[in-house]
Amino acid sequence: MSLEIWNDPLASGGHEARELFAGHFRIASGGADLPLLRLMIAAYSNLPYENLTKIIRKHKARSPEERLRGPVEVVSGFVERHTGGTCFSLTYCLGSMLSSAGFRCYPVMADMRRPNIHCALVVEMGGKRYLVDPGYLVGEPVELSGFPVQVPTTFGTVELRPRRNDSYDLFTLEGGWDELSGIGPGEGASIEAPRAGERKWRYTVRAASVSHADFMKYWQDSFALPMMNNLLLTRLTSEGHLYVKNHHLRVRTRAGKTNENIRAGLEARIASEFGIPPDVTAEAREHVERLRRSWRRGERKGPSIIMG
Asked: What is the reported pTM?
C-alpha cells in the first residue's frame, strides 16, 4: 500500500486547497523539508476544532458521501467563515495538502475511550517519522523517536511516550485542556489554578498506517458518536486555549483556568471568541436541541451526553 495518504492529491482537492491555504497564510512554495512542514503545521493550527459544521452536514446531507467535507471546503470555510472541523476532516485536509506538496505522509488511528475514534498523520522525512495531530491543536510536528518527548504549548505541555507495538501514549501536563472530562454545569465564572505535576492520558496512537478504505469507514462511523450530541469547539490563542462545550466556556492559560456559562449569548460569544458567524452556531444548536426535544418526548432513547 502506498504511504501517500491519498493516491491522487489532485483528485482529493489537496493541490487546490494548498494554493488557497498558502495564499491566505502567505507561505512561499519550497521543497518538502522540515522548515516547510513546521511552517504549514503552525499555520494550520489556526483552524479551530469545531463540530458545528459536522452537525449541520450530518442533518442536511442527502447521502453518507455528502457528509464528508473535503480539503477545499475546509480551507475555504476557514478563510471565509473561520470554521474548521473535527479530527477526521482536519486530518484529511492537511494530509491532502502535505501530499500535494511532496511530503510522504499517511493517516494513523488512535484510541480514546473507544477504539479508532481519533486520527492523525505520520510524516516520513530523512529517515525519521513525525506525528502531526491537527485534531488536538498541537502546533508542530513531533518526532516519533522511540523515546519520551515533551512539547511546550501556550496552554501547557504535551508529552508523547512510547509503548509496545509501535504505539505512543499522549498526555497533557500542568495546564493541558479538559475536553474529555468536560466543564461543570455551574453558573457564572470561576478560576482554578493548575495542579503541579498533573498528567492526564488523552489517547494511544498506533504509528502504523491505516488504509484509505478503513480511514473513510471510521470517518463515517464518527457521525454516530455521542460527541455529535454536543456543541464542541476548541482554539489555540497566543495566551492559551479556548474550549466550549454546549454553553460552557473554559479559558485555560499557564496561570490557571476560567469557567463561564455563556448560554444567554452563545452565538454572539462564539462569534467573538472564534470568529464563526452566529448563523452557523444557531443552526447547529437547533439541530442538537431538536434531537434532545425528541428524546424528552420519548420518540427514541438518547445516549448519555459525553464526548467520544
From this structure: 0.87
